[in-house]
Amino acid sequence: MHYVRNAWYVAGWEQDLPAATPTPISILDELIVIWRTADGTVTALEDRCVHRLAPLSLGRCEGDRLRCMYHGLLFDAEGQVVEIPGQDLIPRDARVRRYPVIVRHSWLWVWMGDPALADADLVPPAVGFDNPRYILGRGQLDYAAEARLINDNLLDFSHLSYVHTASFGASETWARSRPKISTLERGVRIERWIENEQGMHSPEPNDRWSTYDFLLPGVLLMTGGNYPVGTAARLGHAPPDLEDALSGVTFTSQAVTPTRPGQARYFFSWGPRTDMGDAALAEKLMGIAAKAFAEDKAIIEAQQRVIDRTPDPRIMPTTADKAVTLFSRLVDRLVRAESSPALPARQRAAH
Q: Where does the chain cross the membrane (predicted)?
């Protein structure tokens, strides 16, 4: 499977990266070492020494530099070798790749494409732990499955009716109704009303509004709220004002990062708005999320095993696959543009 390279991928949680500690990560099957200096600056380099290819993640931080602990080569934050013990001449090409990094919304974002195209404005607008309006919990899962399969799962919520009956308590309305789907420049938007049903956010029947953007390279940003029965009809099924919600206003940020072929890491945070809940509710929601996302993991990894043993695997789309199809087409178009030498670099990133 192929993935867009000119995009910001989540490498990890900001809170999990200690100072002066080289940490190995893998994104798109590339070995990367990431570390934080004492002043908080985060740097990411190719995790492969130019001398004998030892991992730099086993190295030692020296200020904003990183020393390979095999034969002592010292790299600066740009990836250039600045010292070779016992040798005065340093080859000009003694360097490793440097990856642009941004710390935002409590996540570490790494740009995997052309560094000249690394645009901070393309970081998806998630909600982090520094947002005072929400009380969030967080987690992550490693999948033995392609990231694209996880993306497909997040783009089609009809599976809630069957995979998540024990966790989210979703009714078959999720499978039998179709949301409103619209295209965005770098993703899709999915909006829907579930009318006159009770759910985990409310013991009483209500109209539940939910909306989420699914953005490149694989980031879900979702919110919603509960309203009196009849609100959806009164609004003509148009989007409501979240400030008018009775309860259940939450935000979830989820990110899918391909690590190696057939493997991915799934990051998630979820919690209530401060006027709709407290830390106890956030903890309860995370307990539900842990159960639900384990259910997703079980079915998707099983799906991957079947795909791996199926000659020429093909799917039969249904009408529930509209968002999946739109997002897949976007990815395919951008991947083709990235590999087209006929287009200028910036045009390849945009198209």
A: none
Q: Which fold has domain 8-121?
A: Rieske Iron-sulfur Protein (2.102.10)
Give the mean model confidence (pLDDT) for residues 339-346.
63
The residues of the chain that CATH labels 2.102.10.10 are 8-121
pTM, rounded to two decimals: 0.94
Q: What is the largest CA-CA distance in the chain?
A: 78
User: What CA–CA distance (Å, rounded) separates 114 from 109?
Assistant: 15
Answer whether 225's CB lies under 8 Å from 245's CB.
yes
H helices present in 248-321, as ranges = 279-308
CATH number attached to the domain at 137-330: 3.90.380.10
In the chain, list all ranges with CATH 3.90.380.10: 137-330
Give the DSSP letter of residue 242: G
Per residue in 191-217, pLDDT tens? 999 999 987 667 789 999 999 999 999
